[in-house]
């Protein structure tokens, strides 16, 4: 495991890994991306998500057992201000009966702990599941510039 990876098991024993994408990940994600559950942001072409920088990162959530990509996240550190991180995309493959998205967000929060004290996610207004999902994780809604943001203090 590299220093770029975060690993955690959930209560049901699912192990997930959060890491930068590999070419094989993008090929596998392409199979489910169009039908993914989008819980933050809006889908963008997969190739546009490659080429992470210090501030803008694309991370893949991988099933730790079979190494299959089960989620994709794009996050901007220092956005909108220093100490913040913005989740620009959280897309999860449909996995019935498994709370993969919540595990992915927990890994992301741990990944960002040293770089951000607040995290926010833009919620698609036409996806009620997304609002419920972020509320359930302890995020609070804030409406700004006709956009719904879900915000959480990481140091609380």
Task: Describe this entry's structure for a reader.
This protein has one domain (6-153): Gcn5-related N-acetyltransferase (GNAT) (Aminopeptidase). The two termini are 29 Å apart. The longest helix is centred in the C-terminal third of the chain and has 13 residues, at 100-112. Strands 1, 2, 3, 4, 5, 6, 7, 8 and 9 form a nine-stranded mixed sheet that branches. It has helices spanning 23-32, 100-112, 128-136; strands at residues 6-9, 15-19, 37-41, 56-63, 69-77, 84-92, 118-122, 140-144, 147-153. It has 156 residues and is α+β, with helices and mostly antiparallel strands. It contains three helices and nine strands. The protein is globular and about 35 Å long.
Mean pLDDT: 83
Q: Which structural class matches the secondary elements?
A: alpha+beta
**What overall form do the CA principal axes indicate?**
globular
Number of helical segments?
3
CATH superfamily: Gcn5-related N-acetyltransferase (GNAT)
Strand portion? 35-45%
- Nearest-angstrom radius of gyration? 14 Å
Which architecture name does CATH use?
3-Layer(aba) Sandwich
Helix content: 10-25%
> Would you tell me which CATH topology applies?
Aminopeptidase
Low-confidence stretches: none
Ends distance: 29 Å
The CATH class designation is Alpha Beta
Total number of distinct structural domains: 1
E-strand count: 9
What pattern of helices and strands is seen along the backbone? EEHEEEEHEHEE
Please describe the topology of this protein.
Layout: E1 6-9, E2 15-19, H1 23-32, E3 37-41, E4 56-63, E5 69-77, E6 84-92, H2 100-112, E7 118-122, H3 128-136, E8 140-144, E9 147-153
Parallel strand pairs: 6-7
Antiparallel strand pairs: 1-2, 2-4, 3-6, 4-5, 5-6, 7-9, 8-9
